C-alpha cells in the first residue's frame, strides 16, 4: 500500500495543517500563526452573539478571510515577507478545521489510510495505517493547553449529553460526527493524551470481510446462519482486532423488520443510522455524571431500559462490567439472536471473563450460577486474531454447551491452524446444526479447509 499524502505530510511536516504547493507537494501551516488568528476569530465570534449554525459557518468563513488579509497587511507593513498563497491556504484550512472540525487532527481523521491516531501531548503524534504501519505525525496543536481546548470543543460539539473534560472529569469518551471513536485523558497523565479509532469500514458486510481475507467462505456462511437462526454470539479478541466490525457485518444478516436495541459506552456501532438495513433500531449510550457528580447512567441500567423497549435483539457494543449480567439475562429470556463483543486473548478466556463480570455485578451470583447462566445464554463464541501474514482473521469458533455449574463446556468447531486461521475442529451438536441448516447453511462446509 502506498501511504496517502496526508500521512506522509504528517510524518515530514511541522505544521498544524497542510496545503498543496507547486508540483502537488504539501505545505505546512505555521502553528503560531494559526493559534494567533484563531484567538482573534474567537473574539469576533463571541462579540457577534447568538447565531444559527448556518450564520455561524458564514461568519467563520468571513472572519477567516478577514484575519488572513489583516495578517498579510501586518507582515508587509512591518517589513516581513507575507505568507505564500499555498501557506495561506493551509492556514485557512487549519482555521476552518479548528472551528468546524478537530483542528490539525482533522486531516488525519479524514485520511482513508489511517486507522488509529495516538496523541501523547500536542507534539508527540503517531498514526497506525490500515496495513499496520506505525508512523510519526506532525504536531496537532501549538501547546498542550490548546490540545485540551480542542478536545473540549469536540466534546461540546458532539451533540450528545453533557461531556466534560477537565481536572474534575479527566477522561472523555465520545463518538465523533464521522463515526470515529475518541478517548482522551488529562491530569492523570503527564500530558493530555488521546486516541482516535477510525471506522475504516462503516457499512461492512460479511462478503466484504470475505473479500478482505478475514473470513473463509465456510465461516462467512456459518456466521450468517448463526445470525439468521437467532443464535446468541459473543465476538472476542484483542484491542483493535475488528470485533465491532465483525459484529456490524453480522448484523446485516438480521431481517430489516426486526427491532434492535444497541447499548454502548460511546456510540460506535451506528446500526440505527442505516435506515435501509435497520429501520427499527434504537441506540442507547451510557451517560456520565454531570458537574455535580449526579445523573450518571451505566450500561447495566441501559440494558435494562433497552429490554423494556421490546426489542427482538439486544446488541451490547462491549461487555466489560455489570452489563454482562443483564445482557446474559436478555439472551436467556427470549431475546434470542443477541450479540456482544468482549476483550479476550482466546475464545475460552472470553467465557471466563464473562463469568468474572457476572460475579462482580451487584447481584453477586455464585461461580456455579454464573456458569449456568452463561451456558444457557451463549450459543457461540467467535475469536479474532492476527494471522502470521498480518491479516486480521477469525481464528476460532466455540459452540457453548449447557452446564451443571462447575464449568462451561464447549466444542471448538473451528480451531486455530498453524497460520492462526480457523480450521475445522470438533463436530457440532446435531440439534444446533439442524437449526443452522434450516437457516440455509450447507453442513458440508464444516469440512472445508479453504481460505
TrEMBL record:
GO MF term list: ATP hydrolysis activity
Signal peptide positions on this chain: none
Domain of life: Bacteria
Record region (Disordered): 1-27, 408-429
CDD domains: VirB11-like_ATPase
Bacterial type II secretion system protein E domain boundaries: 102-362
Listed InterPro entries: P-loop_NTPase (IPR027417), T2SS/T4SS_dom (IPR001482), T4SS_GSP_E_ATPase (IPR050921)
Family of the protein in this entry: Belongs to the GSP E family.
Name of the molecule in the record: Flp pilus assembly CpaF family ATPase
Amino acid at each position: 500500500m502506498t501511504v496517502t499524502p496526508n500521512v506522509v505530510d504528517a510524518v515530514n511536516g511541522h505544521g498544524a495543517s497542510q496545503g498543496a504547493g507547486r508540483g502537488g507537494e504539501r505545505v505546512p501551516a505555521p502553528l503560531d500563526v494559526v493559534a494567533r488568528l484563531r484567538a482573534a476569530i474567537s473574539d469576533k465570534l463571541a462579540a457577534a452573539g447568538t447565531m444559527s449554525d448556518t450564520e455561524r459557518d458564514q461568519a467563520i468563513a468571513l472572519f477567516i478571510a478577514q484575519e488572513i488579509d489583516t495578517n498579510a497587511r501586518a507582515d508587509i507593513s512591518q517589513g516581513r515577507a507575507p505568507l505564500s498563497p499555498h501557506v495561506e491556504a493551509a492556514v485557512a484550512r487549519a482555521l476552518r478545521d479548528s472551528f468546524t472540525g478537530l483542528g490539525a487532527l482533522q486531516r488525519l481523521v479524514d485520511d482513508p489510510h489511517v486507522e488509529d491516531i495516538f496523541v501523547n501531548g500536542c507534539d508527540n503524534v503517531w498514526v497506525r495505517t490500515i496495513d499496520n504501519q506505525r508512523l510519526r505525525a506532525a504536531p496537532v496543536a501549538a501547546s498542550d493547553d490548546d490540545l485540551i481546548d480542542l478536545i473540549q470543543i469536540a466534546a461540546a460539539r458532539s451533540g450528545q449529553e453533557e461531556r466534560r473534560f477537565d481536572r474534575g472529569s479527566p477522561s472523555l469518551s465520545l463518538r465523533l460526527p464521522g463515526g470515529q471513536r475518541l478517548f482522551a485523558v488529562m491530569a492523570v497523565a503527564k500530558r493530555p493524551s488521546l486516541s482516535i479509532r477510525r471506522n475504516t469500514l462503516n457499512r461492512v458486510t460479511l462478503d466484504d470481510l470475505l473479500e478482505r481475507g478475514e473470513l473463509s467462505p465456510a465461516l462467512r456462511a456459518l456466521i450468517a446462519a448463526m445470525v439468521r437462526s437467532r443464535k446468541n454470539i459473543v465476538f472476542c479478541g484483542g484491542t483493535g482486532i475488528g470485533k465491532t466490525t465483525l459484529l456490524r457485518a453480522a448484523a446485516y444478516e438480521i431481517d430489516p423488520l426486526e427491532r434492535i436495541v444497541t447499548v454502548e459506552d460511546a456510540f460506535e456501532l451506528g446500526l440505527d443510522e442505516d435506515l435501509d438495513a435497520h429501520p427499527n433500531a434504537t441506540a442507547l449510550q451510557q451517560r456520565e455524571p454531570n458537574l455535580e457528580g449526579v445523573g450518571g447512567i451505566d450500561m447495566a441500567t441501559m440494558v435494562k431500559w433497552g429490554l423494556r423497549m421490546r426489542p427482538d435483539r439486544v446488541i451490547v457494543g462491549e461487555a466489560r462490567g455489570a452489563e454482562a449480567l443483564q445482557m446474559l439475562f436478555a439472551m436467556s429470556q427470549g431475546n434470542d439472536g443477541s450479540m456482544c463483543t468482549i476483550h479476550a486473548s482466546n475464545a475460552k478466556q472470553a467465557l471466563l471473563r464473562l463469568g468474572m463480570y457476572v460475579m462482580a455485578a451487584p447481584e453477586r451470583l455464585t461461580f456455579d450460577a454464573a456458569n449456568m447462566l452463561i451456558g444457557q445464554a451463549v450459543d457461540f463464541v467467535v475469536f479474532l486474531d492476527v494471522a502470521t501474514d498480518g491479516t486480521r482473521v477469525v481464528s476460532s469458533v466455540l459452540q457453548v454447551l449447557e452446564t451443571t455449574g462447575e464449568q462451561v463446556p464447549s466444542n471448538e468447531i473451528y480451531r486455530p491452524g498453524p497460520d492462526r486461521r480457523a480450521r475445522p475442529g470438533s463436530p457440532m451438536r446435531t440439534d444446533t446444526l439442524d437449526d443452522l441448516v434450516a437457516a440455509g447453511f450447507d453442513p458440508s462446509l464444516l469440512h472445508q479447509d479453504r481460505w
